[in-house]
Specification:
Shape: elongated
Number of helices: 9
Oligomer: single chain
Largest sheet: none
Order of helices and strands: HHHHHHHHH
Helix content: over 70%
Length: 181
């Protein structure tokens, strides 16, 4: 409407009248009012901090997985047999995250936000609805411990797997390499 007035055109003549949105309109107005009210009540600081923490820790967790697989194979074709078990928690976490948007306090959402392989996605969906501090601390702690353990295991696999040339690695081989001291 401001553009129409700036051009010297009467906005009402063009049918461009827009109702003003104020607090009474939001209080009265159904779905749009609910959306605006919800957006106003979000803790954006917690969302941003949670995003960076879970993004960094989730990245490190899955990077240690993929590093172990990358050190055990020679070419891309060999990775196909080893990659599925690593990507399945990501896919499952995505579906649980979608469930969490509707039912943030369900037991499935709670446990998936504690399990380190799905928590980077599911906990981010729960943070918007409010999560107790102890749940955040436990989830982040478990994620850090799991990352450290997987990094140690990936190092053991790397030490042996990088030297295996010409042999196609299997999960059984990776399991044996983890046990070697």
């Amino acid at each position: 409407t401001q553009m129409a007035e700036g051009l010297g055109v009467d906005p009402e003549m063009m049918g461009m009248t827009m109702p003003a949105i104020d607090s009474t309109t939001v209080a009265q107005g159904g779905e749009m009012g609910a959306v605006l009210s919800t957006l106003k009540d979000l803790d954006y600081g917690m969302l941003i901090i949670g995003f960076f923490i879970y993004f960094a820790l989730g990245y490190l967790l899955y990077a240690s997985f993929f590093a172990a697989i990358g050190s055990a194979v020679e070419n891309e074709a060999d990775t196909q047999q080893l990659i599925l078990p690593v990507t399945m928690p990501l896919i499952i976490g995505l579906f649980i995250m979608l469930h969490t948007f509707q039912y943030p306090d369900s037991s499935l959402s709670f446990w998936a936000s504690m399990i380190p392989f799905t928590s980077p996605m599911v906990m981010m969906a729960r943070i918007a609805y409010g999560v107790p501090a102890w749940e955040l601390a436990l989830s982040i702690g478990l994620l850090i411990v799991t990352f450290l353990i997987l990094t140690y295991i990936s190092g053991k696999i790397y030490r042996i797997g990088i030297l295996m040339y010409g042999k196609k690695a299997t999960w059984k081989d990776l399991w044996k390499w983890m046990k070697i001291r």
